[in-house]
Amino acid sequence: MKEFENREMKDVVETPATGYTARFHGVRVKRYCQTLDLRDNPELIAEYRKRHSREAVWQEILDGIREVGILEMEIYIVGTRLFMIVETLPDFDWDSAMARLDTLPRQKEWEEYMSVFQQAKAGMSSAEKWRPMERMFHLYDK
Question: How far apart are CA 123 and CA 113, in angstroms?
């Protein structure tokens, strides 16, 4: 597997059918998987997607995510269901990081704005909205 770790995937078109490449961090990582539902409104969903585009997402939010120790964050969507994967170093503490994230610039403003699109109560932090998922199966060591 070592020979594949540094192979560039820049020419691969990523779609649900072809799959998505994962970043190689050079170290073992811990993964958190969470879910959240959007309001069942096509216009709101389209706007939510737009707000998470490279052009529209707030830089302070990206900086804060990295500042608390998150190496990678991906959000997937099907219908109104969101699925988020977060990768961190093994010593990452979720509760401490989320408490810190909640104090960073524009984070509360972002969460309040996002609550318009999400099936969540206004004023909830990211840690309160996104529900952790339990891993019930993995292929490793099988």
Answer: 10
